[in-house]
Specification:
homodimer, alpha/beta, 2 domains, 11 helices, 31% helix
């Protein structure tokens, strides 16, 4: 029985139902006729990002398994695979089920598989022909998985997770990894298929050198496992990287010439739409480290919402809330349009600042300091459409059952269903 | 065209599809066989809360229009209406559409209706027979609505919003309300049907007396509108109240004997499942103000998740993240069970403290200070199931397409579909 995630894999048919009377509408102008707020993906930036990251991975001799939890949008999985991705990374068993239901056959569950109901989901995927890998870091979990999959008459491919002291999951040192590998070796139902890590939880001074050190540790542990003949698969996977330090991981894996014997896999997720917050900041660091990489990723995800009320001088209340957009950081007003206007007729949001976000409302402080600003205030109208950027795309995607793919003229090209 | 909210009103049929192979399953034991994490509503507490709040409203001579945005769960709307609710309050036009699609016919949109696409949604609901009320606070919006609904040949019932200085939406004073009422009077397509307020944005020292003062201001402005013959409907609505100060609003409305001429409407939303955070705190204040009210509401919403890793002494990583539970405040561990165990066999979480929440993981610090605590640490197992409470139920509901209604024995009775 399902706990309520990814339930719509069967319901969201290819006909793109919109819940609107009259049924299917796949075109529309974002500035007139689309119910706002709406989450929007710009196709130009999306296409750029897909190609950029695939090129990056290939240039470093690595495979790309984009983390699908970011978007949980099968149409984006398909674009990632079409661009050359090796598989899709997921965070939970229901996410794996949803991806497989939409045609993704190589699934990297970069997480421990816990609980018999979740094991049952993965068992059914394996029986249906999926190539699933999951992660282990404890004797207890290895025993649970070994027992469960043996009883099902199946073999499960697992990667040992190497963590860091003070980090998240994962074995804390070399010896722990080796002991766990021996145990896996003794479990008939488990196949040790590789080593996994996540550098996003490495913290402290000089994070770059710490991440580099961690990447080298992954290489050394993988080589030790290989040396002792503990990998059962002929081309073991070594995988790491979130969306902030993937360049350092890729560089170490390339320097170690991992690709000659292993399958190095990178797993960034947020790159596909990038962001206007933490990943924009992370990219500044990346481009400073790697001046050879031109331009970088472009933000592709915005949320469009309307001015709902102008109740006091200097205050605009926008029909946009915590239900609509990520709020790890407060959203950033980017541009403004008149309802029914043209995409090219961009109005200013200079000096606008979101000060508070409620469930369904954003408070925006408007510049009111001088006469010029006073004029600007008068010129804003109830109904004006404001494009917002946010930090952390994962937490915007999960607020929508459908996002709108638009072109630069703000014409809706396609609806992107999600299956959270 | 829809912006992506409430899209599943037509997809979620009465058969409660679960996305599971094999189709419908409406029973199950939460401690074995249910994929976790899962959001859970306890039926006992739910039934108590439904009856408690209905009784409260009736005892104060008020109607109840529970705010549906909290849950967006039609099965809960139906229970609220069956308990005696007058209608359902919603925050957006797509939410109104979703509620109407599930049989709710009296819809109080306690928000400005902005944008032609949203007006079109409401127009279609009116054409289909819905009784819709929305809120206005500006000349600009009144003109937009008047023009739009005149062109559609429809009449829209509006309530003027009275706000507070430094607050959110709403007219800022008596004169502004009266001027707006005159304008509405001149718009053939608009019917002035009442006055609306929201005391949840009243802030400052001595909030109780400020909220009380604001409630009296609502009463006086409504009486002035009535005196000047500006209400078009024979029994104008006066409505206010969120989930924290509804007692003060109800008391003032009762003291003013509003029910003799007006229809007083309360709109709390979170009461239906209460919470383990801000509304628990608010209820302490309420029960101190009103010792005559026995017991109060009970928390009914929890999220069940499993211990995923025990990588270091004193640290448990739980498979529970920002994708699963509200995080205005960090979630609170309530109880623990063994997977496959009985609901009565509750294990301790004494001293457990969530220190960080990532997208799919929670970090829990375990008590390790003494030998006794050390024993406790050894006794925790990977796979143990932990029930968590959270603050702000709206932001837990919107993370799930389905929640599980359970009895005290943790048996699943029903799945509650949501239509965010």
């Amino acid at each position: 029985m399902s706990g309520g995630k990814g339930l719509d894999d069967r319901q969201a048919g290819p006909e793109h139902r919109h819940g609107e009377k009259g049924g299917v509408e796949l075109t529309g102008d974002l500035l007139s006729g689309v119910s706002l707020p709406a989450a929007v993906v710009f196709e130009g930036a999306l296409v750029h990002n897909l190609a950029w990251m695939q090129r990056f991975a290939e240039a470093h001799g690595a495979r790309l398994a984009p983390h699908g939890k970011t978007t949980m949008a099968p149409a984006l999985f398909h674009r990632q695979l079409a661009a050359g991705a090796w598989g899709i990374t997921l965070a939970t068993a229901p996410q794996c089920r949803a991806a497989f239901a939409h045609g993704v056959t190589r699934l990297l569950l970069a997480n421990q598989l816990i609980g018999e109901a979740n094991m049952a989901i993965v068992a059914e995927l394996i029986e249906a022909g999926a190539h699933v890998y999951c992660v282990v870091d404890s004797i207890a979990n290895v025993s649970q998985l070994g027992r469960y999959f043996a009883a099902r008459g199946l073999r499960l491919q697992v990667l040992i997770e190497l963590g860091v002291e003070g980090g998240r999951c994962g074995c804390r040192d070399h010896d722990e990894v080796m002991a766990l590998a021996e145990l896996i070796d003794s479990e008939q139902a488990l196949v040790l298929a590789g080593l996994e890590g996540y550098e996003g939880v490495v913290h402290g001074n000089d994070p770059e050198s710490r991440v580099r050190g961690y990447a080298w540790q992954l290489v050394e542990v993988a080589q030790a496992l290989d040396h002792d003949g503990l990998f059962e698969s002929p081309a073991p996977i070594i995988t790491a990287s979130g969306s902030a330090w993937y360049d350092v991981i890729a560089q170490v894996f390339a320097e170690a010439r991992l690709g000659e014997h292993f399958v190095p896999v990178l797993r960034p997720g947020c790159y596909v739409v990038h962001d206007h917050g933490i990943y924009r900041d992370a990219q500044r660091g990346l481009l400073a480290r790697r001046p050879d990489l031109d331009r970088g990723l472009r933000p592709a995800l915005e949320v469009f919402a309307q001015v709902q009320s102008l109740p006091e001088p200097g205050l605009a209340v926008i029909a946009l809330g915590k239900r609509d957009i990520a709020f790890d950081q407060l959203p950033e007003p980017l541009r403004r349009y008149r309802e029914g206007g043209r995409a090219g007729a961009v109005l200013s949001v200079e000096g606008w600042r979101v000060t508070r976000l409620m469930d369904q409302h954003a408070f925006v402080r408007l510049p009111m300091d001088d006469h010029e600003a006073g004029e600007r205030w008068d010129e804003i109208r109830v109904g004006d459409i404001v494009a917002f950027g946010a930090s952390h795309p994962c937490l915007t995607f999960d607020k929508w059952r459908q996002l709108l793919l638009v072109d630069d003229a703000l014409q809706v090209k396609e609806s992107l269903q999600t299956c959270f």
